[in-house]
Write a structure and sequence with these properties.
Number of domains: 3
Helix content: 25-40%
CATH topology of the largest domain: UDP-N-acetylmuramoyl-L-alanine:D-glutamate ligase
Keywords: ATP-binding, Cell cycle, Cell division, Cell shape, Cell wall biogenesis/degradation, Cytoplasm, Ligase, Nucleotide-binding, Peptidoglycan synthesis
EC number: 6.3.2.9
Number of strands: 20
Pathway: Cell wall biogenesis; peptidoglycan biosynthesis
Strand order of the largest sheet: 7-8-6-9-10-11-12-13-14
Subcellular location: Cytoplasm
CATH class of the largest domain: Alpha Beta
Number of helices: 17
Radius of gyration: 22 Å
Structural class: alpha/beta
CATH architecture of the largest domain: 3-Layer(aba) Sandwich
Distance between the termini: 59 Å
Family: Belongs to the MurCDEF family.
């Protein structure tokens, strides 16, 4: 390959810099271009690799001569530079697709509108504790390509977003997990749920009879998307409402997992580290993966019982004057906020708002009526939240900083209530990202 093929990488974040590292190692002529500002950390990494790069622009002459382009999942197919590349017939792929060419490791690929980070981390936790030589990558942690460049794992747990799936072609998941399909990112899919669902179903493309597909039998949109598709892989559904012969189901507050007729794992839901209905699903999905890999029941139970969930996902921050403060900043869509409210057992003062991605707030109405006493809006434009819920709650207040939102929520709550930051929106109007939003909320709580 040396000196011959030119690989251009668009986007210099974790995935882009990882792809640059692997491409350089494989002898490609590599160039990285980011339309935004490249952070100092990633600039230093590119300089160390000796890779040419540009920041805050896309110079067409340096991009359109690429043999292949690896693009960041955040860049839509409608971006002018991508349209020009596609018109030229240039191959445009994801970092995941690129990295998979250079590894013989097997992959557990987890997708879904909600719960994929939690399920990916739980699955990784179970495998690692069982002694599997496993890496964690994709939408989470360190770049897949960088890990492939640095060394070898036998397995990778990959959290895969629909945007990544859109740029995957030859890639195959050895074990594919689809948790659910709910409206999210519809601005990238012409506001059509079926387009988004079709994207999610790419998780099973290229699978063979030797592979595994795990999905939620209770999720209507998943079942709808599966109609007309015949998965080649061995399928394992999971359900909390009906008995499943081969797969997982819930009966009398106990999870039952069968991956073959006479080999059962049972676990009481009260022993699960992750509580709430949605987390029963996440635990079932991870448990099926573990059973498919023939890990010991004791090991699986132990890991499912001692797992610590991720920051910014229903994270308990503090209890002040008898009021619980919960950081669910990672809830960037309506469905995530629905899950958060569904798992609440006390009255809630809800902090929500931000950049609305064409949200349909209707699904929250019943939970907001029954559980939420006040809404504190945190965002530049809160009109749609007011319109959606003005008949359902007594108080809706506008705020423009995490400090202000936290203080007002504290005053509106009383002993025994919970203050829940679960925005249902992206964070880019007031914050760098959802982590920044969550960290500012946590800092504000500690100042109370």
């Amino acid at each position: 390959m040396a000196g011959a093929s030119r690989v251009v990488i668009l986007g210099a974040g974790e995935s882009g810099v990882g792809a640059a590292k692997l491409a350089k190692q494989k002898g490609f002529d590599v160039f990285v271009s980011d339309y935004g500002v490249i952070t100092d950390k990633y600039k230093a990494a590119l300089e160390k690799l000796g890779v040419a790069f540009e920041s805050e622009r896309h110079t067409e002459a340096l991009i359109l001569n690429a043999t292949e382009v690896i693009k960041s999942p955040g860049i839509p197919a409608t971006a002018p530079i991508i349209k020009k590349l596609i018109a030229k017939g240039t191959s445009v792929i994801s970092e995941i697709e690129f990295a998979k060419r250079y590894t013989n490791a097997k992959t557990v690929c987890i997708t879904g509108s909600n719960g994929k980070s939690t399920t990916s981390l739980l699955t990784y936790h179970i495998l690692k504790n069982a002694g599997v030589n496993v890496g964690l990558a994709g939408n989470i942690g360190q770049s897949f390509a960088a890990q492939v460049a640095d060394g070898e794992f036998d397995w990778y747990v990959l959290e895969i977003s629909s945007f990544m799936l859109d740029d995957m072609f030859q890639f195959k998941a050895d074990i594919a997990v689809l948790l659910n399909i709910t409206p999210d990112h519809l601005d990238r899919y012409n506001y059509k749920l079926e387009n988004y669902a079709a994207s999610k179903m790419r998780i099973i493309q290229n699978q063979t009879a030797a592979d595994v597909f795990i999905y939620c039998a209770d999720d209507e949109e998943s079942l709808k998307a599966l109609k007309g598709l015949s998965p080649m892989a061995k399928t394992y559904p999971f359900s909390i409402v009906k008995k499943i012969e081969i797969g997982a189901y819930l009966q009398d507050d106990t999870i039952h997992i069968h991956t073959e007729p006479n080999n059962e794992l049972t676990m009481s839901i009260s022993d699960l580290a992750l509580q709430g209905k949605h987390n029963i699903y996440n635990s079932m999905a991870s448990g099926i993966v573990a059973k498919v890999l023939e890990l010991r029941n004791e090991t699986i139970r132990e890991s499912m019982g001692n797992f610590k969930n991720i920051e910014h996902r229903l994270e308990h921050v503090a209890k002040i004057s008898g009021i619980d403060f919960i950081n669910d900043s990672k809830a960037t869509n309506v469905n995530s906020t629905w899950y958060a409210l569904e798992s609440m057992t006390s009255d809630v003062v809800l902090i929500m708002g931000g950049v609305d991605k064409g949200n349909d707030y209707n699904m929250l109405k019943d939970l907001i009526k029954s559980k939420v006493k006040a809404i504190v809006c945190l965002g530049k434009d809160n009109k749609r939240i007011h319109d959606a819920f003005e008949d359902d709650v007594e108080v809706i207040v506008n705020t423009f900083s995490a400090d202000e939102a936290t203080q007002i929520a504290f005053h509106l709550a009383k002993r025994g209530d919970a203050v829940l930051l679960s925005p249902a929106c992206a964070s880019f109007d007031l914050f760098k990202n959802y982590e920044d939003r969550g960290n500012q909320f946590k800092a504000a709580v500690k100042e109370l």
